[in-house]
Amino acid sequence: MKRKSIFVTIILILFTTIFLDVYLKIEYDASIFEYLQKSHKLTNEERKWLEKHGSIIYGADQNAPPLRYVDEESKQYKGIVVDYLRALSIELGTEIEFKPLVWDQALESLKKGETDICDMYPSENRGKYYLFSDPIYNQKAVILVSKDEQDIVNYTHLKDKTIAAQSGDYVVEFLSSKVSDINYKLTVDYENAILHLREGKVDAVVGDEPVISYFVEKLGLKEHFKILDKPIYEKESILAVPKSEEMLLEILNKGIYNLNRKNTMVKIYQKWFGVSAPFIKENISEKITLIISIFITIILLASYLFYSWNKRLKEEVEKRTEELNISRADLQTTFDGLTHLMIVLNKEYNIINVNKSFCKLIKKNKKEVIGKNCRDISQNIYMDINLVIINKTFIEGKSLQNEFEYKDRIFEMSTFPLEDKIKTIDRVLVMIKDITKVKISERQLLQSNKMAAIGQLASGVAHEIRNPLGLIRNYSYILKMNKNKDEEKTEKAISVIESSVNKASDIIDNLLNFSRISSNKREEVNIRNFIVNIIKLEYKVMEKQNIRVEVECDDKIICNINQESLKHIFINLISNSIDAMTNGGVFKVACNKKDNVLIFICSDTGSGIRQEDLENIFNPFFTTKVPGKGTGLGLYVTYNEVKKLGGEIRVSSELEEGTTFYITLPLDGDDINEKK
Questions:
Q1: Histidine kinase domain: from which residue to which, for each copy (predicted)?
Q2: Selected residue with higher pLDDT from 635 and 155
Q3: Confidence (pTM)
Q4: Are residues 410 and 388 in contact, defined by beta-carbon separation less than 8 angstroms?
Q5: Which CATH code for domain 520-676?
């Protein structure tokens, strides 16, 4: 692609250079290199030459209006060429003197070096004596005949005819080379030649069109004579200088070039005739040819670039399409390789795509499923139940989750919104994964954590039961030894035994209440009684470690809540607080109900937690305790149980000052346990 761009750039530069060169040749009669070279001003050497040479003398015809002539009234030398030379004088910064002569004398004076410049047509014969400048104007040579003339149509018909022409005029040289047997009547100027035609002395007059037209108008001969439509020739006029004046020629060419750039001759012609016409060579055909060539070249280049671009674009599209197909195939392979069930649905709940795991579950191939409505397979995976969260995903534009059971297995459904190119959600990806093993492991983990807590409580309970058992044993011995002797002592012994039995029974009941697996549903619970009963299980250990317990909770707070989850939350928080207060302290539980939200604040005055450890305390198996003293699962279980109840838990702690847990549980929120 880079090489092609370089090639196109080179071609473009080449064509631009060629067209610019042709344009400059047409407009200024100079190649691009000459144009750049001539665009410079006069050199110091050329200026010194002009200073040394003095005035430049222009000698030419004194009676060839409107080109050059002496005005009869003012006796001033005037004309189009005279005005042009005055402009050239200003451009070169040197004076040009004018010397009106008869045309023959003007040519001879230039040949002898008596004058410096004269405007004329260049020719091979004149080239023997003069050097020629760049063109300064363009004009035609024409034939003037009587209006009744039928034989002369063009210059080839002048054979054997008598024609009048100005002596020394180039037209004589031209016709002599083209037509033989012409009888020439040479005159001093054009006016005399036309008078010869009027008097019938000649058959025609030949010469420069503007001069002949001027005298025909002046002599009032328009009604009697006509200029033939076809010119003899159309040529450019130049300034001629003597053969020895090469430096002057270079200077004149620079001046002519600069005047051409300013369109000086066009402006002078407009001054004389009010229009810019044939006096300036228009080069219409060359310009049209150039424009057509440029247009064709642009079309060819554009076609080539369009073809190259299309070819490159086609190759790029094919390449990208192939990459896209490979990527799509890879994505589909990955999609099919996932063990999770994957379904893509549109807004009408029609199935756009599914993976192999899903097809395997419902025992259908992909072709049978694609395009069908998910309700048609609802009997297989309870899709009708889960359409609620799918619809919610379309509306809210966010991922959602739900759990459901199917064939004694537990599944988790996750939905993900898929956007089109205008950011509109037009599809939803449904991912269903089997979380049965995860749930079993989670329940086993909870039970293990619970049994570990029970094991920890067992030693304390044993001590608690040993006291009432000792009393029962002692007073049983008293009863045995005091048969029918002291009735008062007997009654006291029986009272102590009954009290000890009740105390032991309470301890055992409390332990059994904690250890038994309660239902996973919400039930009415007196929060204060619940907290007090949980604390009683650890009371002996807390008493031994000199930990004071404070409970701030209204005994009228009765909530519909999942008791099983609440057990795991509090037993782990109490256990951690006991471990943090080995040298005694205060454990405080505050509970409040506000706007249908249950708020717990559990704090201790223990050793605290380092700030860098706070973000990890809810991670599984993270612990700061010495090996053998903790599993790192307590707070992980607490966090999960809070989340199951739809609540939030956060913690703040300072080293050597203590730790506080803030728990909020919505009483009307979603409970994952109830969903299951």
A1: 460-669
A2: 155
A3: 0.46
A4: no
A5: 3.30.565.10
